[in-house]
Amino acid sequence: xxxxxxxxxxxxxxxxxxxxxxxxxxxxxxxxxxxxxxxxxxxxxxxxxxxxxxxxxxxxxxxxxxxxxxxxxxxxxxxxxxxxxxxxxxxxxxxxxxxxxxxxxxxxxxxxxxxxxxxxxxxxxxxxxxxxxxxxxxxxxxxxxxxxxxxxxxxxxxxxxxxxxxxxxxxxxxxxxxxxxxxxxxxxxxxxxxxxxxxxxxxxxxxxxxxxxxxxxxxxxxxxxxxxxxxxxxxxxxxxxxxxxxxxxxxxxxxxxxxxxxxxxxxxxxxxxxxxxxxxxxxxxxxxxxxxxxxxxxxxxxxxxxxxxxxxxxxxxxxxxxxxxxxxxxxxxxxxxxxxxxxxxxxxxxxxxxxxxxxxxxxxxxxxxxxxxxxxxxxxxxxxxxxxxxxxxxxxxxxxxxxxxxxxxxxx
Length: 412
Prior knowledge:
Helices cover 33% and strands 27% of the residues. With 412 residues, it is an alpha/beta fold.
């Protein structure tokens, strides 16, 4: 009895063993579809007509006619229509709504029914389009992740009248949509030791020679006589001069660490939040009057100011894909080493910080470190010391970017 049970189990296992799962999946997708079922029924009706009675050929003819109509009608409809798709504006940010318009023309003499525009996982149904007319439909689109859209080639499809098979045709896209990383308000630019004077820049709360009065101090040889505070000098019986604000333009270089194996993936992983942190700092500091550059992988954008440079940086971050260059290689690249008199702000994770070159650890770089435990990582964490800005979790990123640095606490 025991041996018979073992034999039956072995036979059942052998009978149900799938030698090629991928091939079986394709066969099931074809055979179990409505079109596959009808085709199989037509073939069986033909066999029954040959083996049993010729009257069964009538059934085979009816099934064949339904199959032919379910395939040819959608194919002819899609071959006739012309569709274009365009976005309301060329750029937007993660989570910001943008309008999408699809224009479809039908030069055929009969109406086009059951049309849908397929864009990735989005399917928008179109109203019936009369013969020799043109119609358009608009719908809101809210991208959840940065990048270039459409991420997949959009198509116009229809399965009318029976839904046996969806005929598709590619849609012409008039202009791409670039989705920038989400940005947040940030604190002041880090204090720099080598600021360069730039005419017309906003004043900073730092000692200089051309801004508003910050305070007074004893006279030093070489001070301009115009800066002597005569009332205070008479009171203290020695020369007292006024200290003025600095109107130097800060220069910062943001280095984004995209090395392989240090990030968690996904919309709320460290990789995407590191990109958002870098984008926030670049945008906020440039809008505050600084010159900011960015480097990641093989891309190096030198420090500049102005709205056009903000667009250039955000476009580059939106298009960042599979950059896996090590941080040490990025820091030692000639293009980055050529940028002088700029503070380096390195955005990485606890794993990236632990494996960073020792020379980079002990120089004057400001480190922005994302703790992977707060971004979906459940493995062992790398130990880090005191860093310029630590981002422990998704929920705390906006607050830490705005108030988590020493400059934000004490002013720059």
